[in-house]
Amino acid sequence: MQASTRVMVAATTMILGAGGLAGCSSSASSAGSKTVTVAYEEFGDFTQLNTQMQLVKTQYEKAHPGYTVKLEPIQAAENDYYTKLTLMNRSASTAPDVMYEDTFLVNSDIQAGYLAPLDSYLSTWSDWSQFTASAKTAAVGSDGKTYGVPMGTDTRALYYNKTLFQQAGIALPWAPKTWDDVLAAARTIKAKLPGVTPINVYSGKGSGEGATMQGLEMLLYGTNNELYDATTKKWTPSTTGMLDSLGFIKTIYTTGLAPDAQDALNPNFGTTVATDLIPNNKLAIDLDGSWVTGNWSSTGAKPWPAWSSTMGVAPMPTQNGQDPGSTSMSGGWVLSVGSHSANKQAAFDLVSLAENKANSLNYDIIASQIAERADVASDPKYLAANPLLGFFTGLVKVTHFRPAYPVYPQISDQIQVAMESVMTGQSSPSSAMSGLAGQVSSIAGAANVASGS
Question: Can you give the residue range of the structural domain that contains 143?
Answer without folding.
Answer: 3-153+333-400
